[in-house]
Structure formats: C-alpha cells, structure tokens
Amino acid sequence: GFVDEAVGIKNGSVEVTDDDGVATRVRLNSNDALFRELRDLNFGRACDALKEKTSSMQREYETIKGGKVQDQTVGEIGGFVKKLGEKQGLELHSNLAKRCLETTRGGGPPDGGGGGASADDNSAFMRGLEVERMCVEGGDLDKILEHLAARLSAGDDARRTTRLLALASLTHGGIPGAKLERVRVDMLRAYGSRVLPVLGAMEQCGWLAAREDKSLYARAFPAIRKPLSLVVDDVDDHDPSDVAYAFSHSGYAPASCRLIHHALTGSLRLIDDVLRALPGPHFEYTQGFDASDGSPAVVAVDARLFQRRRERAVGLSAAGGGIPPRRGP
Asked: Region Disordered: which residues (predicted)?
C-alpha cells in the first residue's frame, strides 16, 4: 500500500529508476523471494532488513576476496556465487526503498527529475500523513478542511481529495452543513460536474454527511475511538505487539481488527456498547465444539438458528427470507 501511494503501482508493476537514471518496470509479487519476505514488514523495518542483507553480502565478499581460493570450500564459493544472483533483486528493492524515502523525507530533486519526487510533492505527502493522523485522533476539523482546500487549489488527484473528505466526515461525526457546502463548491470548481455523482454516492453509503443529519455512520468512529484503542501512540516497529504496527505512520489500529480480536478472545459482550454504536444490525452466533469422542471437533452449524437470529437482527421475515436446511460446517 505504501509503495502504491509513494511511487505508484500499475497492473501489478512499478517503475524503478537506478542510480544511472535508467528506468525499469518490474512486477511485484511473491514470485520474488525478497519481496515475499519484505512485503508484510513495516516500511522502516523493511529498510533495516535490506541494509542487513547488503552488509551480509559485503562481509562475505570481503571474506572470499581476502582469503586464498584454495582455502575456500566449493560449498562456500558456490553459496556466495548463488547469492550474487540475488544481487539484482537486492539492488531493485534498495532503489525502490530509496525512492520511497525520497518521498517521505523530502530527498527528491527540486525539479522532480531523475525519477524522484519534487520538494513540493514531498512536503505535501508528509503534510498529508499529518492530516490523516489529525483525522483519526479527532483533531481540529478546520485545519483539516484548510488542508483539503489547499490540495484542491493545487490540482491534487480527485481520488486523494475525496478520500480525505470521507475520512474527515467519518472521524468527526460529519461536517457542519455550511462548511460541507463550501467544500462541494470547491470540488465542483476543481473537477467539474464529474465529481457530483461521486459525492452523491459517498453520501448515499454514509461516507459523507452533514453533522446536523446525525448520521449513524458519521457518529460511529468518534464513539468507538477510545473504547477500542484505535489510536496507539507508542508502536515498536522492531518488536511489534499491536496491529497498529502495520500503520505506524499514524499509529492506527483498524476497527475491524479490534473487533476480530475481541471475537477470537470471546470478549465481544464486554464491548456491547461499542457494538451498539456501530451502524447496521448485528447478532452473535457461536458454533461451538464437541469433545464426545475424546478429541475436539467443530459442531455442525445450526443453519436454522443462525438464520432466525440473522432475520431478527436485520428485520427480515422468515417467510420472505427462506430458511436453508441444516448443513455441516
């Protein structure tokens, strides 16, 4: 996700420029052994892993170079030669990490040449992360909307600005009507009439709402932010113990992950108030286990009971919804 945001992934591939200015488009998938190892790491930890691999290869090279060939076993030399075959992939991912660092730290050339991001782009990227952090923390909405207006004036991509608008609405209980109307006008000026269906769809699904409407979707996040510990201030990138590690630029733990954790630990009933704050119906069904034969086995799903609870939750009639026959898991 970060590589896509910072560099851009198209059709599963990314364009990487080496130190000589040569651009290469490569595919990113698990067929690449190094990418398979790095893809789920926090970005900072991935950079450390690349440094460790590079240093390890350098040390082995110095060992081979400093010793006598006759003193080296065939296995030692063959193993190092095999690692040299990985050098190309290591250089690729090192260049990719460098490109990402240029985006986050403002290291790109001012004119945007050489494949790097411009200073303005770097500043906008970091400011964008700060504003996202303000959103999830429930920070000053006026400052968030000021940043949004600045990005609209700068001609930023509509996908990014509408995403920020939705985030601001969902994390602040909606946007005051007068301010929301000004945002609509600004977006219409920036993108033309093509943005109107997008805003309409966002309102219809609850991603965008006026605060006066008291939308359940808009009120949900502020109500569950603290009870579910969605914002984590201290995250250890090297020895993570919290899912917020994956989102350490903002220290945010997705609500879905927190709910799954409570479900797996059997503590959903302890957060009943949180569940009631979430929009939409909900119900609980536990499948259970059967140890009658001496070994735990999953009990077959009682489809009728499951369906009845679901119908009560969503307000469907048993006659209209139909009850499926009892089936196994």
From this structure: 101-121
Phi and psi at residue 283, in whole multiples of 5°?
A: -150, 165
Q: Which two tokens stand for residue 317?
A: 């009639």
Domains, the chain = 2-105 (3.90.830.10), 120-224 (1.25.40.850), 243-277 (no CATH), 281-329 (no CATH)
297: Cα within 13 Å, side-chain hemisphere: 10
The lowest-confidence range among 37-46, 79-88, 186-195, 287-296 is 79-88
The rounded Cα 54 to chain-centroid distance in angstroms is 28
Q: What is the CA radius of gyration of the chain?
A: 26
Specify the long-range contacts of residues 91-97, CB closer than 8 Å, at least 24 apart.
Answer: 91/18, 92/16, 92/24, 92/26, 93/34, 93/35, 93/38, 93/50, 94/50, 94/54, 95/16, 95/17, 95/18, 95/19, 96/3, 96/7, 96/14, 96/16, 97/46, 97/47, 97/50
Residue 20: how many other CB atoms lie within 10 Å: 5
What residues have CB less than 8 Å from 212, skipping those under 6 apart? Answer: 174, 176, 177
- Mean pLDDT for the chain overall: 76
Instruction: Return the beta strands (E) in the chain as ranges.
Output: 13-17, 23-27, 289-290, 297-298
Structure tokens at 92: 């690729």
Give 10's DSSP letter: B
Structure tokens at 94: 């090192």
43 three-class SS: helix
Alpha carbon 212 to its chain centroid, in Å, reads 30
| 3-class SS of residue 315 | coil
